[in-house]
Amino acid sequence: LAQHQYLLPRLVGQWSHLERLGGGIGTRGPGETQLETDRRIIRRHIQKIEQELDKVRQRRDLHMERRKRAGLPMATLVGYTNAGKSTLFNALSSSDVIAQDQLFSTLDTVTRKLRLSSGGDLLLSDTVGFIQKLSPTVVAAFRATLEELQGSDVLVHVIDVTHAKAAEQAQVVDDTLNDLGLGDKPRILVMNKMDLVESKSTDGQPAFIPTSDKYPTVFVSARKKWNLERLLDEIEGTLLQIDELVDEEEEVEQASD
Q1: pLDDT tens-place string over residues 55-74
Q2: In terms of Cα–Cα distance, which of 96, 79, 76 is closest to 87?
């Protein structure tokens, strides 16, 4: 749905080179005819997908309810598109989620169970990559997927440190999370693709160095599976801090009663 809604308004530009061919008064050129055909096909796909979205939401709600009953903590990978989220997800979970260098390669939320060093279990989810200046219709298409972030205990924000606009991309993710009401949710910054730093930078430094004191930061290479244990330890430490805060709040509530 997101792909079709993203492409629909861009069809005009794709067929503009044919608009002047064979299009006299009262007639339609091949560009206009093909444009209308493509629009009709995409709109038909959009309608069909929208009808299936309700079923997807119902399954998602059922899965979330089961996770709550299981009592397992959840960490969710978020980040700009092509930051390496799916590669990191595969490396951490030994899965084979599609990891491609293209827009919207991951659309559905995928969840796997991991075993932490302490012996406890963790649910890890991979989500759609964010992009800048998405139209409201595309954002609406993603919302069903992004709403699952609400049930996550900690967000793992994956950033491509080699990208020239890494700082801007990180800000897009921050703004999107704030728009979804998730600005205060516990978060970990993951500086990914550290294995490519030297080949992408003339001075051997990443294109983007985080300066935030608000969130813990871990430097990794998902492709090389470097420093992933450190990341899992950081996730576990964040979950422990959340548990401690919850315990303190419960003690305060009991004392006030």
Answers
A1: 666 665 655 565 555 678 99
A2: 96
147 and 233 share a domain?
Answer: yes
How large is the average pLDDT for residues 33-40? 72
Final residue belonging to a domain, choices 44, 70, 96? 70
56 with 25, same domain: the answer is yes
Residues 116, 225 within the same domain: yes
Model confidence pLDDT, tens digit, residues 153-195: 999 999 999 998 999 999 999 988 888 888 999 999 999 999 9
CA distances from 68 to 63, 75, 119 (A): 9, 13, 19
Please say whether the beta carbons of 191 and 159 come within 8 A.
Answer: yes
Domain of residue 45, residue span: 1-70
Per DSSP, the residues of 15-48 read HGGGTTSS--TT---HHHHHHHHHHHHHHHHHHH
Output b/e per residue, 65-91; b: 16+ Cβ within 10 A.
eebeeeeebbbbbbbbbbbbbbbbbbb
Helix 136-146 crosses helix 30-70 at what angle (to 10 degrees)? 20
CA separation (Å) from 55 to 5, 23, 50? 20, 44, 10
Distance of CA 212 to the CA centre of its chain: 21
Q: Which helix (H) or strand (E) holds 149?
A: none
Pair 49, 121 in one domain: no
Quick one: tokens of 9?
A: 């308004």
Using only C-alpha atoms, what is the Rg of the chain?
Answer: 22
Q: Domains in the chain: how many in total?
A: 2
